[in-house]
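debug: dumping io for the single-chain case to check the tokenizer round-trip. Nothing else runs in this session.
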Amino acid sequence: MRRLVCSVLSIGFILVTASAARAEEQDVVQTKHERTALNSIYLELGGNGPLYSLNYERFVSDEISARIGVMFMSVSASATAGTTTTSAIGGPNHKLELGAGAVLMYFSGTGASTFNAVATASGFVIAPTAIVGYRYVPTDGGFNFRAGFTPLFIAAGGQSTFFPWGGIAAGYSF
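debug: decoded output
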């Protein structure tokens, strides 16, 4: 399933990037567009928040923005014996997005055996993450879109795991 999601996101990313590159090549007259829409709010599926995230972003300059996002996920388990800073390169509206950051995750769980033994554990994990993707964000505001490869690296409990991941997002800039 994870490979299918990554494959679909990768193919979509390639198609969107290729079409954006062709559109940029067709623009003969290059004019400087000053960004008037400095704020964005969007819902992201997949991406840096593994399932979804609600994000707010502020452009510091035309090429650099800072973002904060939140996601809530409740996970419970039982067992019976016998769990940015982002920068972009491109035209005024179409950008190559490159970024790095960290995701703070909180996990808790409880397990019980048939002999009434109960074990609980909880804790925070910091997972480094990155993004390589395409972004459409109009200089004067309105609908925005992004898609990209957003891998996570989780090291906890003496084990390290690399999750190749991806995400798409849509929202509004103002």
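debug: round-trip ok. DSSP finds one helix and ten strands in the chain.
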